[in-house]
Write a structure and sequence with these properties.
The complex is a heterodimer of chains A (about 260) and B (about 260). By secondary structure, chain A is an alpha+beta fold. Chain A is built from 7 helices and 13 strands. With about 260 residues, chain B is α+β, with helices and mostly antiparallel strands.
Chain lengths: ~260, ~260
């Protein structure tokens, strides 16, 4: 980023001035991202809907990206800016790794992302916020970790599970009842798909699994073997079984009262 | 005021070339060769931290011999060039040809500028394609010229001898273990015909593997994996020992 700033400052997201605007701008927004850890790794997943005001701008947008081999970012907020930020973030991690001959620590990556979000604060205050969720496998501590952010770049580590975006309130509520510390990888995947289903159920800006068009959430898993994105067939199986159960119980699995 | 002695441009250039060549010849060699699934880099390098072979971009790698600070400088320049290109345009727009041109310009300018000493380095820039025919290997000598290479190439101290040894024995469609065996064999030959034993600890091995599912095709072969590959080759070589010995003795005869 420093190198880019010196040599091609025009390419940096923060270095472009914005025209003054009146009121809210209507641009595509990404919506719900959820993450959950399990022993041995972390699952990061996102829905596929981008909205523009009350319109659906895109049904099959992708909001979860690998940052490098052992981490991934899910983005909520203004889609265009977020994608650009992720691109620069990926570049920085890779660049650092190649120049130094060793990858950044997971904390280091999380801090770097924090600075980048802070750099976008001016835009965020004009309504163009980007709020990512960062998840990765910490090769030193040998576990999956999740970091969430606010628009000012404030970073906080989340233990267990986290969600961001407009549907995050519902997703978090859903995960709170479903999450256990000893989930297997497959169970964690099911839990995040359930959470996205619940988010889509109550938030109009979050898209549920679209069985007719074969559009399913993006589910990624990061373990000590690195980043892996589940194939469409794998996700469709989970999404279909969740959907099947919901035909009988529309509100999803019930937690015990006491 | 003292008048400087006249030195003809030919003489000046020859002196500079001589200086650079001597510097390069002091170091150990690096060999680069194609195999079925990609391009293999083998360097004799006891250090684990100071690399002679490194990744530049998705499909591009870099190998160098000579002065460490000089080629490290060029490597960092190359990574910056590639990353900036890829970020501005697209990952596919970063090519070995473009990178080799930048290196040639840099080396050429430094070589012919009177103010600086020429770089004592020789580089290889290689790009792995989706099929062996699309692989590209460029060799960049100290003076900024570019040589387009195919099959196998050696740079560094003993490069002429190693190069001809490789050329005679390299063929297309070698497996990784075969190619590695050949590379190690060629590196372990001394100037005076003797052989040294090179162990896994003395070797730096990396590949650009086109079958790798990730976008970044560069992979170092380290530790156990390297030992396994080396022993796989030596057991296979033991079977063909006789035939190679025959050809080796034929070689020495012809040299005499």
């Amino acid at each position: 980023m420093d190198f880019l700033g010196e040599h091609a400052p025009g390419l940096l997201p923060g270095n472009r001035s914005l025209p003054p605007v009146q009121g809210a701008v209507e641009l595509p927004h990404g919506t719900t991202i959820v993450a959950a850890t399990f022993p041995g790794g972390v699952v990061l997943s996102g829905d596929r809907r981008a909205t523009m005001g009350n319109l659906i701008a895109q049904r099959d947008i992708e909001k979860v990206f690998p940052a490098d081999e052992y981490s991934a970012v899910g983005i909520a907020g203004t889609a265009g800016l977020a994608v650009e930020m992720v691109k620069l973030f990926q570049l920085e991690l890779e660049h650092y790794e190649k120049i130094e001959g060793a990858a950044l620590s997971l904390e280091g990556k999380a801090n770097r992302l924090s600075t980048m979000i802070r750099g976008n604060l001016g835009m965020a205050l004009q309504g163009l916020a980007v709020v990512p969720l960062f998840a990765g496998y910490d090769t030193d501590r040998e576990k999956g970790r999740i970091f969430s952010y606010d628009v000012t770049g404030g970073r906080s580590e989340e233990h267990g599970f986290a969600a961001t975006g407009s549907g995050s309130v519902f997703a978090r509520g859903s995960l709170k009842k479903l999450y256990r510390k000893d989930l297997t990888e497959q169970q964690a995947i099911t839990a995040v798909v359930q959470a996205l289903y619940d988010a889509a159920d109550d938030d109009s800006a979050t898209g549920g699994p679209d069985l007719a068009r074969q559009i399913y959430p993006i589910v990624t898993v990061i373990t000590d073997e690195g980043f892996r994105r589940l194939t469409e067939a794998e996700v469709s199986e989970v999404a279909r079984s969740v959907h099947e159960r919901r035909l009988e119980e529309p509100d999803g699995p019930r937690a015990s009262l006491l | 005021m003292s008048t400087p002695f006249y030195v003809s441009p030919q003489q000046a250039m020859a002196d500079r070339a001589e200086y650079a060549r001597k510097g390069i010849a002091r170091g150990r060699s690096v060999v680069v060769l194609q195999y079925t699934d990609g391009i293999l880099f083998v360097a004799e390098n006891p250090s684990r931290a100071l690399h002679k072979v490194s990744e530049i971009y998705d499909r591009i790698a870099f190998a160098a011999v000579g002065k460490y600070n000089e080629f490290e400088n060029l490597r960092i320049g190359g990574v910056r060039y590639a990353d900036l290109r890829g970020y501005t345009y697209d990952r596919d727009d970063v090519t070995a040809r473009g990178l080799a041109n930048v290196y040639a310009q840099t080396l050429g300018t430094i070589f012919s500028s009177a103010a600086e000493k020429p770089y004592e380095v020789e580089l290889i820039v290689a790009e792995v394609g989706s099929a062996p025919e699309e692989d590209q290997i460029y060799r960049l000598p100290h003076d900024g010229s570019i040589v387009d290479e195919h099959g196998a190439v050696a740079v560094g101290g003993n490069s002429d001898q190693i190069g001809s040894y490789l050329d005679q024995r390299h063929r297309d469609e070698m497996t990784l273990a075969e190619a590695l065996g050949l590379a190690v064999e060629s590196l372990s030959r001394d100037n005076n015909g003797g052989e040294r034993q090179l162990t896994a600890e003395q070797l730096e091995v990396a590949v650009l593997d086109r079958t790798r599912p990730q976008q970044r095709k560069f992979r170092r072969i380290l530790g156990r994996q390297l030992t396994r590959l080396l022993s796989a080759e030596s057991s296979a070589a033991a079977e063909t020992e006789e035939s190679t010995e025959d050809s080796a003795s034929a070689d020495t005869e012809s040299q005499e």
